[in-house]
Specification:
Blueprint lengths: L1 E8 L13 H10 L4 E7 L5 H10 L3 E9 L5 E6 L2 H12 L9 H4 L3 E3 L5 E4 L15 H7 L3 E4 L9 H5 L10 E3 L18 E3 L16 E3 L5 H10 L7
Parallel strand pairs: 1-2, 2-3, 8-9
Antiparallel strand pairs: 1-10, 3-4, 4-7, 5-6
Helix pairs in contact: 1-2
């Protein structure tokens, strides 16, 4: 069956995310938009994922815990996990690879940890807007060790993207999928080096008004996080929608 998805969303824990992007608000807006499968992917952390998953499930959504990891090369990679616990374990590992400096909320933005009822649990002091020291080629193996799947984000953009940094897609990277931004020129998806990849388009929403309606679909046997992980990790072809 086909399910409407958005697998790249930010909350107020991302320094560039709006303060209105609480887990509760985000989940409610996703449900209102007609989405069915959603994932929270804050920058270099999974700290709000458990709260988001609870809020999303209360709205009848299939929710995945995730992260938008910034690699050593400053390439963004969306990492998704089958449950919040494994995501949190992965997040603790990634914290060891962040630069040893504190966030400046006046310059980069606040980093708010929230519960699923709009309560503030605290403010993250680590510098989440920076890059980790993890090489791109290590990411698929690392994510798989926590039972997840990963795909490079917005590869068509000039900055923080695989094609923007490397110039081409290397099949030895170990990714089965990639994300194209909604502004991606149609001809880019027909590049020979992208042949056989699953190509997704997500909103990458940082504010409530950036969340899309039901537009792009995933073909899955069942609407579960595990089915999404298997789909992204194993199956070739192009995602419909």
């Amino acid at each position: 069956m086909h399910y409407y998805y958005d697998l790249h969303l930010h909350s107020c824990l991302s320094p560039c995310g709006s303060d209105e992007m609480t887990p509760a608000n985000l989940a409610a807006m996703c449900a209102l938009a007609g989405l069915e499968i959603v994932a929270l992917t804050d920058h270099n952390t999974c700290g709000n994922c458990a709260s988001f998953c609870r809020a999303a499930q209360a709205h009848g959504l299939t929710a995945l815990a995730g992260m938008e990891l910034c690699t050593q090369e400053e390439i963004h990679v969306v990492c998704l996990f089958p449950d919040p616990q494994r995501a949190e374990d992965f997040s603790r590992e990634i914290a060891r690879h962040l630069p040893p400096i504190a966030n400046d909320p006046d310059y980069f933005g606040r980093q708010l940890r929230m519960d699923d009822g709009d309560g503030i649990l605290g403010e993250e002091s680590a510098f989440l807007a920076g890059s980790t020291d993890i090489p791109l080629y290590e990411v698929p193996r690392l994510v798989a060790a926590w039972g997840g799947a990963a795909f490079p984000a917005h590869i068509d953009r000039p900055a923080f993207s695989l094609l923007g940094v490397l110039g081409l897609w290397d099949p030895d990277l170990g990714f089965s999928a990639a994300e194209l931004s909604y502004r991606c020129p149609p001809e880019l998806a027909r590049r020979p080096d992208l042949a056989g990849l699953q190509l997704l388009t997500n909103s990458d929403a940082h504010s409530l008004d950036q969340i899309w309606g039901a537009e792009h679909t995933l073909d899955l046997p069942e609407p579960t996080p595990q089915a999404v992980i298997r789909r992204l990790a194993c199956q070739p072809g192009t995602l419909s929608g």
